[in-house]
Write a structure and sequence with these properties.
With about 260 residues, the chain is mostly helical. It is built from eleven helices and two strands. A two-stranded parallel sheet has the order 1-2.
């Protein structure tokens, strides 16, 4: 395809992607109230517990246009999420024709594996949110209240979900490195103690809370996923060794002897 045809196709696919995001944003704007209830549910769950300890806390909107900006921001982010299958399909539609058949197969497999892992990690973050906020707001001294702006609250949720979602991609990265021959199952097993230590350090630094429980909620699934990826790498290496042995030719087959 000539360069101008590529540029036209890129423009068409970008236009479709933007329209998909726009429609998703409009849908999120219409259903703003239930979306907001879903996002604030973890916060509302801990308010009675904090009140029992004498800590009064509220989510507030600051500024004249703060409420509009807050609703627009939530609608845009949610619109990006719900329209992601459409605009990701447009990206794949532009990239896939340049790939070979084997590359297309692996690209589809990685996408089908990576998306559920990320969603699972983000869902785990949503479950951990009440405990994380309870710990952080619990540092408020006696006689003080806690006012959390809507923007701060939303940024906190997004950051937690992104950290947990990215962390859930560890087995996929390890399997890819093993498939391309960068690391072997034996190397993964030898590096296991240091890898686990690194996972706990990452969990301690990445989580915005300071309590060990939230760190454990992130580190424990990462360790389990790493061990699973190590097993997958071992099976892959074993199959690779069998294929290499089957394809290996004997000396007579390589260089037949003359009579």
């Amino acid at each position: 395809m000539p360069l101008m045809e590529h540029l036209r196709e890129l423009r068409i696919r970008l236009t479709r992607a933007v329209l998909a995001i726009l429609v998703g944003t409009i849908v999120a704007w219409i259903f703003y109230e239930p979306i907001l209830d879903f996002l604030t549910e973890p916060y509302n769950d801990i308010r009675p517990l904090l009140a029992e300890r004498g800590i009064e806390t509220d989510i507030v909107i600051t500024g004249i246009g703060g409420a509009f900006q807050f609703q627009l921001k939530i609608s845009l982010v949610v619109g990006l999420l719900i329209s992601s299958p459409l605009w990701l399909w447009q990206i794949w539609g532009f990239v896939l024709p340049a790939m070979h058949r084997n590359e297309k197969k692996w690209a589809a497999l990685l996408t089908a594996t990576g998306a559920p892992l990320f969603v699972g990690g983000a869902a785990l973050a949503y479950v951990v949110l009440p405990k994380a906020m309870d710990v952080l707001i619990g540092f408020v001294p006696d006689g003080f209240g806690s006012l959390v702006t809507g923007a701060e609250y939303f940024d906190f949720i997004i950051r937690m979900m992104l950290v947990f979602g990215v962390a859930a991609e560890i087995p996929l990265i390890v399997v890819i490195l093993n498939r391309i021959g960068a690391v072997s199952a034996r190397q993964l097993a030898a590096a296991r103690p240091w890898t686990i230590i690194g996972i706990f350090i990452f969990a301690a630094v990445a989580t915005p809370t300071t309590d060990p429980l939230t760190m454990l909620f992130l580190a424990a699934p990462m360790v389990v996923l790493y061990l699973i990826s190590e097993v997958i790498a071992k099976l892959t290496d074993r199959r690779r060794g069998k294929d290499a042995a089957a394809n290996e030719l004997s000396d007579d087959e390589v260089s037949p002897l003359d009579d």
